[in-house]
Amino acid sequence: MDTERHPPLRHTVAILSRGDAAARRDATAQNSRFVRVFEALAAVGIEARPVIYDEIFASAVRDQLLAVDGVLVWVDPIHQGKTREALDPLLRDVAAQGPWVSAHPDVILKMGVKEVLYRTRHLGWGADTHRYDTAASFRAEFPARLQANGPRVLKQNRGNGGQGVWKVEALPNADAMVRVLHAQRGSLPEDVPLDALLARCEPYFGWGGCIIDQAFQPRLPDGMIRCYMSGAKVAGFGHQLIKALIPPPPEGPDAPEAQPGPRIMHGPDASQFQALRRSMEDEWTPQLMDTLGIDEPSLPVIWDADFLYGPRDAAGTDTYVLCEINASSCFAIPDDAPAAIARTVKYRLHRTQAVRSGA
Length: 359
Hints:
Strand order of the largest sheet: 7-12-8-9-10-11
Protein name: DUF6815 domain-containing protein
Order of helices and strands: EHHEHEEEHEHHEHEEEEHHEEEEHEEH
Organism: Bradyrhizobium japonicum
Region (Disordered): 249-268
InterPro entries: DUF6815
Number of strands: 17
Number of helices: 11
Domain DUF6815: 222-331
């Protein structure tokens, strides 16, 4: 082929995020919070277009997505009371008609929900974890488990920002009373009847289908390590002293002492996280894919696994306990991540093109 007269086709992708009509009208790559992702994609020859989604103009969004080669999705499971109930079927339909979608809703339902903590509890990142599939099993099993095993953390299956995540501990000398603390910022501990807590959590079965029950990790004050992944490779790390599920100081939940520390970002080669990197790349991610039935090309172009420090082993080395995987809307990201995303997107698009051409 004469490449001067017929230059190679330029791949196009949509970067999809939620917003209102004004955000949709004014969206550009330059004013987007994903501007560095746009720049990294352009650097590898991929044209990226901002697409703003809301249910009221979903049909127009669908038309835009069908006009590109791939779709990168950054939409939270819950945002200002809105869910992905209408978006996920739209994305499935788009993907069925040709454009490659990441993360695909079916992949999110496997790995980007709290149930993954239960399904992968046998991996090296696992902890004492249980799943309740019905309100009846929750009422029957949780009270005894709480009494026998100490503080627990209940998690609705789909959510973000600490919504539907509760630390629960039995109160001594107070029959059928528990102390609960919601993970959302600004929450205060409450002493409530256990029955009231069970009733409060029952709506989670309607939205997410189950409730996950995990042992509380005493080293929570040491912070959370966010391991950012692009496909099956580590793209960076973030370490943050979090305050969720830690009772606020006497000054109250709005005091400076009650606020989380900054998330300190690190590149994939940060020396203090190399043991975790080896575990993620060489063991846990392959085991995750095998357990959930996900192949490497289906892994999100950007996702993260959030770890708490587990008990130190006999040699005094840190262990890690998975507390969440974010696959729907993983952002903010380390400085190295946009380039990693661009490399993964380029590889995936070329692979998709080769499959379709029969190469």
